[in-house]
Amino acid sequence: MRAFVEVNLNAISNNIKLVKSKTQAQILAVVKADAYGHGLIPVAKCAVDAGATWLGVALLEEAILLRKAGIKVPIISWLTPPSSDFKQAIELDIDLAIPSLKHLEVIVAAGKALGKKPRVHIEVDTGMTRGGLLGEWPEFLIAAKGADIEVVGFWSHFARADEPDEIANQSQMLEFESKLAQLIATGITPKYIHLANSAATLTNPNSHKNIVRLGIAMYGLSPDVNTLGSSQNLELEPAMTLKAEIHLVKRVPAGSPVGYGGTQTTLRDTKLAIITIGYSDGIPRNASSAAGVFAAGRKAAIIGRVSMDQFVVDLGADSNAVAGEIVEVFGANGYSIDDWAAASGTINYEIVTRIAARVPRIYA
Ligand SMILES: *Cc1c(COP(=O)(O)O)cnc(C)c1O
Question: What is the count of structural domains for the chain?
Answer without folding.
Answer: 2
